[in-house]
Design a protein that fits this description.
heterodimer; A: alpha/beta; Rossmann fold; 2 domains; 8 helices; B: 7-stranded mixed sheet; 5-stranded parallel sheet; 25 helices
Chain lengths: 292, 921
């Protein structure tokens, strides 16, 4: 036991050390988007004014707006816009295959995935939504405390390649954001999506890829290893594989997009050499587009 | 040891190392490059992909070849190769550098001077004293230290003449008996005395000759024959067939020296002479100053035109003939015969011929002219014309010039004439007195049989003596002359036919006309013809064949102009006497160029003598470069290059690619660009040099293009960036010009293109991207830069986009024109003052055409910008209000493109009520 204790603590400290920068970075990224009105565009419970309507039988007398009514003979009721909080559940692939970058100037895929997830979570919390992580075994919550918890959970590196998509969301009818490179087995994603679609969960698939994974710039005798070393492939002339690899990648992308279409999700791709802000903007718009 | 001609080795046994190369080939071939381990998450997609071939097990042949070459270069390099080993053993004693220095050496004069400089340096290195002599201006050779001579070399220039016997003899006389070696830099032409000089020099030491491989070319004086100009060129050696251009040069009507005509001289194989003929209209022929063979740059390849080429235009006007058939009595018969071989004679009424500005007008026995005619002729004379008058019965009978001097007669005349030696008079017919020194006829021989029987008399007064240029033996004037402006009036006091004298029958009459420049001989005069004349140079030639202004060089006596050899005082050039022009050319018509042939024992070489050059260092450097290439190639083969140092190498490779790709076929690029830009609508932006701004512009126009594609029938191609300095603007309907504070000012040429773009209907949209923000009343840096950039542009007056501008309804109805910012300050071309709102119409009847500029600061490109996947790149505003603003900015973009493409047709709806009204009826 004495050997595991320090390692656990060490890991916790390492995780905690990365936490503030990630949060700060995510907050800065989220700061580039100003959230606007987030009403349901119909009368209901809320703070913001929606419309005046003539008082009807059954209206509470306290709801009559006297200032408006005093300008005429009819009593008016002031209606508020209906606001409702939504739940947003994230899954970020933290498998070993995400911890890789082809160039030191680009971030690792997992870093970008975490950053985007946290930034959109921050925006959601500011917008009054509840956020949570898939597989967290707790309901989505709001508040900074929840963001801290998420940040902590997002900094756990999984040892194996190609983590399977989490589909235990605890709550039906939530919105979901799945961020991964989707390079693992596609049937696991298929199972997860179909299961969630059955629960009425809609969401977004964001595929994060390294530019080298798109262009395959390798040549000569090469042995390709996966990050955790579970898979390896040897070739004598890597440049000859390039065309067939690119075809396979395109097919994989099509599969992911098809899955999303079947289940009513949206899918998108992002490359780590592009600005995170563009991806965030797209995510934010995609979520907004679905929410109304 | 000398090997492979021109290369020798200092350690030739090292070359045996080359034998090991085949062995190395076998060894290296067996060792394949090692594999690379590469971490790659997408390996899951690679599983199952098998190699199609397995050739990479062996080192590729080209890599082996590269290595072999490198090792071979190394071995050869260490063997000490030396290029152009010198075969002249070192000597001592003084060196004479003898340069022919004639015009024949002018085309490669710089090479001769270089060669001389090298030789002087070499002599200086050996500590030998040097003397330099230019044989065309021989001096006593003065042997001095090499450094002293090297400075003077630059001052040597080729002379426009050849060394001749006199000069060679003079030089031989100045040679001392001391021994010296001679380096003779020959022009390649033989000249008299060359053999003697060579023999003299050989008695004093070794002689080496340097001579150009090109044989000199000469152009002989042009000849005019039967309406054609015949040009003859000579070459010193008869080689294969050759054609050369020959150019006639002269001033155009504006006085600028131009090529007036071009002919082709053809040398047949084996001939040393070639000919060209030029057939030029007289007008053009008159203007020719000289002919030259372009590219020759020697005075021998230039020949000057003189009066021999010119045919003067002479107008003969005589009184009306009332008798038929008496040709010998005609007033102008002898004149016509004297002039017709050498001039172009026209006739007609005075007022008709004056506008053609003839050289000479001859009035034979015409007494009175109308006042208008008198004035016109006076003006013409002042402009340089020559009025030649002959007396006759009519002039004698008239009162012209009796009371006072007639403006068109040189002297006052006495009434009536006088007749001597006739049947009814006393005395003998008079002969001519010898011509005075200052007379233009000075030097002409007077035949004995020329007599004068009748003449009209001049009224003696103070001006008479200076106006007389020929007299009779009794001193009475025979020919008088008066200068008027640039021209002159000459009066022969006798008739132009043989009734009054025998002068028109004699050869003297023709010579006098020549001296007066009435006629000009096509035959070259001989020395005797020019006796007593003095010729002033107008311009002269230097050795290179450049025409130089003669300045105040002294005049030359006529005979010496023709016969003396050319020298410093008598340079080839154009000489003038009175109104006559005579050219002295470098080559005379009977000159013959012959090549300088040297005896077999004299070593002759060209001007370019390579110095001894050790090339070991070069080969070893080559070997190391090859090894470096080998390292890169090996890395590239094994895939390490791509993974590790790609950014650096790719930029290096890019530099090479740019260097390689830039030179060939830029025309194709331009063409592709034009085809791309014109095959469809293409939105364009101007590259500012700021990569971020440019990327946003590109993305913005991409977003706008995509919006246009989905909403309108405009389907643009992907947008392009424009380099103002290089690209053609006319292909693009609209240019987006984002302003950055540190943007470079375009060049003048770019501005002229921009202005023509604006004038021909283009639209430039300036975007300061800062929403016209003012900081404490100071305009933003972008705006300041904008005003500097736009200052040279041809801008119309501007106004803030009015509410009824067609931009607000070209496609969408708009009130605001937001981009990323939403400022109302968008400026367009101002509407004309008289634009008025028609009755009942919501907008004015505005100017036609598209506004050439739109200036704003709303950062439209950022609002439109999308990335490759179609996602907006920049957030706008707050939430859904921001989305609305983005939508409006797209609508503005659509309106803008519609406005550009369709013009103002929406404005035409101002007529809709009237049209509907008519339809109703």
């Amino acid at each position: 036991m004495s050997t595991t204790q320090p390692s656990l603590r060490e890991r916790a400290e390492i995780a905690a050390a990365t936490l503030p920068p990630l949060l700060v970075q995510a907050q800065r990224l989220a700061g580039t988007i100003l959230i606007g009105e987030h009403g349901r565009r119909r009368a209901g419970l809320g703070d913001d004014f929606w419309q005046f309507r003539p008082a009807e039988y059954g209206d509470n007398r306290r709801s009559i707006d006297h200032r408006r009514s005093a300008s005429g003979d009819i009593d008016f009721v002031r209606e508020k816009e209906w606001k409702i909080a939504q739940s947003l559940v994230f899954w970020v692939d933290q498998g070993a295959s995400m911890r890789w970058t082809s160039r030191e100037s680009n971030p690792q895929k997992v870093d970008r995935a975490r950053l985007l997830a946290l930034a959109i979570a921050i925006l959601a919390v500011r917008g009054g939504e509840r956020v949570g992580l898939a597989g967290d075994h707790s309901r989505p919550q709001r508040g900074n405390q929840q963001l801290n918890r998420m940040a902590q959970a997002l900094s756990i590196d999984l040892p194996d390649d190609y983590a399977p998509p989490e589909h235990d969301l605890c709550t039906p009818y939530v919105r979901a954001v799945f961020i991964s490179d989707f390079l693992g087995k596609i049937d696991k994603l298929q199972i997860a999506l179909h299961k969630m679609a059955a629960q009425g969960v809609r969401g977004i698939l964001l595929q994060i890829l390294d530019p080298a994974e798109e262009s395959f710039p390798y040549q000569g005798r090469t042995i390709f290893d996966s990050v955790a070393g579970s898979l390896s492939h040897k070739t004598l002339k890597a440049s000859e594989l390039s065309d067939r690899y690119v075809q396979r990648l395109a097919k994989r992308k099509d599969e992911v997009a098809d899955l999303a279409r079947q289940t009513g999700w949206r899918s998108g791709a992002h490359h780590t050499d592009k600005s995170a802000r563009t991806a965030l903007l797209w995510l934010y718009q995609a979520l907004n587009a679905n929410s109304t | 040891m000398t090997w492979l001609g021109g290369i020798s080795f200092s350690a030739p046994w090292l070359l045996l190392g080359l034998l090991t190369l085949p062995l190395l080939w076998l060894i290296l071939r067996a060792v394949p490059p090692a594999p690379v381990r590469q971490i790659f998450p997408a390996v899951s997609l690679l599983i199952g992909l098998s190699d199609q071939e397995s050739t990479s097990d062996r080192t590729p042949w080209w890599l082996l070849l590269l290595r072999m070459l490198a090792i071979a270069a190394l071995i050869v390099g260490f063997a000490g190769p030396i290029l152009n080993p010198s075969n002249e053993p070192g000597r001592d004693g003084p060196v004479l550098i003898l340069i022919d220095g004639s015009w024949a050496g002018a085309p490669n004069w710089a090479n001769q001077i270089d060669l001389a400089t090298n030789k002087i340096s070499a002599a200086g290195d050996d500590g030998r004293p040097v003397a330099v002599v230019q044989l065309s201006q021989p001096e006593k050779p003065v042997f001095m230290a090499a450094a002293d001579w090297r400075r003077r070399l630059a001052g040597l220039q080729p002379d426009p003449w050849l060394p001749n016997r006199t000069r060679v003899d003079q030089f031989i006389g100045q040679l001392s008996d001391a021994r010296f070696d001679t380096i003779w830099i020959s022009d390649g032409l033989n000249h008299s005395g060359r053999e003697q000089l060579l023999a003299e020099l050989e008695t004093r030491g070794r002689v080496v000759v340097h001579q150009s491989a090109h044989s000199p070319l000469g152009l002989l004086p042009a000849q005019y024959d039967d309406g054609l100009i015949l040009l003859t060129a000579q070459r010193s050696e008869a080689k294969g067939s050759l054609s050369l251009d020959v150019v006639a040069k002269g001033p155009d009507p504006a006085g600028i020296q131009r090529n007036l005509a071009v002919g082709t001289i053809k040398f047949e194989a084996g001939e040393i002479e070639g000919w060209a003929t030029l057939n030029l209209p007289s007008e053009l022929r008159q203007r020719i100053t000289h002919f030259e063979i372009p590219g020759q740059r020697s005075s021998g390849a230039v020949t000057l035109a003189d009066d021999g080429l010119r045919r003067r235009e002479v107008v003969l006007i005589s009184a009306r003939q009332d008798r038929e058939g008496l040709e010998l009595l005609s007033a102008v018969h002898y004149l016509e015969n004297a002039l017709s071989p050498t001039t172009e004679i026209t006739s007609g009424s005075l007022m008709d011929v004056l506008p053609s500005n003839p050289d000479v007008i001859v009035l034979a026995d015409i007494a009175t002219l109308a006042t208008a005619e008198t004035e016109a002729v006076g003006d013409w004379i002042k402009g340089g014309g020559l009025l030649l008058r002959f007396a006759g019965p009519r002039l004698a009978a008239s009162d012209v010039g009796r009371q006072k001097e007639d403006p068109l007669i040189p002297v006052r005349l006495r009434s009536g004439g006088r007749t001597v030696g006739g049947a009814m008079s006393w005395g003998e017919p008079k002969t001519l007195a010898p011509f005075q020194e200052n007379s233009p006829f000075s030097g002409l021989r007077i035949p004995d049989d020329v007599t004068v029987t009748t003449q009209i008399m001049a009224h003696p007064d103070t001006t008479l003596t200076e106006r007389v240029i020929a007299t009779l033996s009794d001193g009475t004037p025979l020919v008088t002359r008066k200068r008027l402006g640039n021209g002159q009036i000459v009066l022969f006091h006798i008739a132009a036919n043989a009734e009054w004298s025998t002068l028109p029958l004699s050869g003297l009459f023709v010579e006098m006309l020549e001296r007066l420049a009435v006629s000009s001989s096509t035959k070259r005069p001989v020395a005797a013809d020019l006796e007593g004349t003095t010729w002033n140079p107008i311009y002269v030639l230097d050795g290179y064949g450049n025409l130089l202004d003669a300045g105040n060089r002294p005049g030359i006596a006529g005979p010496s102009l023709l016969t003396d050899p050319l020298n410093l005082d008598l340079l080839p050039g154009l000489y003038q006497s009175e109104n006559r022009y005579l050219a002295r050319n470098t080559l005379a018509a009977d000159d013959l160029l012959s090549p300088a042939n040297w005896p077999a024992h004299i070593p002759v070489s060209g001007f370019f003598v390579e110095r001894e050059l050790p090339i070991a260092a070069l080969l070893i450097a080559l070997a190391s470069v090859l090894f470096l290439v080998d390292v890169l190639a090996t890395l590239a083969l094994s895939g390490r290059l791509a993974a590790n140092i790609r950014p650096q190498t790719s930029s290096i490779v890019a530099v090479f690619l740019v260097l390689a790709a830039h030179s060939p076929a830029p025309a194709d690029e331009h063409e592709d660009f034009a085809v791309m830009a014109t095959s469809n609508v293409v939105l364009a932006y101007i590259r500012t040099g700021d990569s971020i701004v440019d990327r946003v512009s590109q993305a913005g126009l991409r977003g706008l293009s995509r919006t246009l594609q989905s909403r309108t029938s405009v389907e643009p191609h992907p947008p392009v960036g424009i380099d103002l300095e290089q690209d053609e603007l006319a292909f693009f309907p609209i240019l987006l010009w984002p302003i950055t504070a540190d943007q470079a000012q375009p060049s003048e040429a770019a501005y002229s293109r921009l202005n023509s773009y604006l004038r021909t209907g283009g639209l430039i949209m300036f975007d300061t991207r800062d929403a016209n923000t003012k900081v404490r009343g100071i305009t933003s840096p972008n705006e300041q830069r904008l005003s500097q950039l736009a200052e040279p542009l041809d801008m119309p007056p501007l106004e803030i986009l009015p509410e009824d501008h067609v931009l607000s309804r070209a496609f969408y109805l708009l009130q605001d024109f937001p981009g990323r910012h939403n400022s109302r300050a968008v400026w367009v071309e101002a509407a004309p003052d008289n634009a008025e709102r028609a009755q009942g119409m919501p907008f004015r009847n505005l100017n036609d055409g598209v506004t050439p500029v739109i200036i704003g600061g709303n950062d439209w490109a950022s609002a439109w910008a999308i990335d490759e996947e179609g996602r907006a790149m920049f957030p706008i505003g707050r939430g859904s209000a921001g989305q609305r603003q983005r939508e409006l900015s797209y609508r503005f973009g659509v309106n803008l493109v519609m406005h550009v493409l369709t013009g103002n047709y929406k404005s035409d709806q101002v007529h809709v009520p009237a049209l509907l009204d008519r339809l109703g009826q």
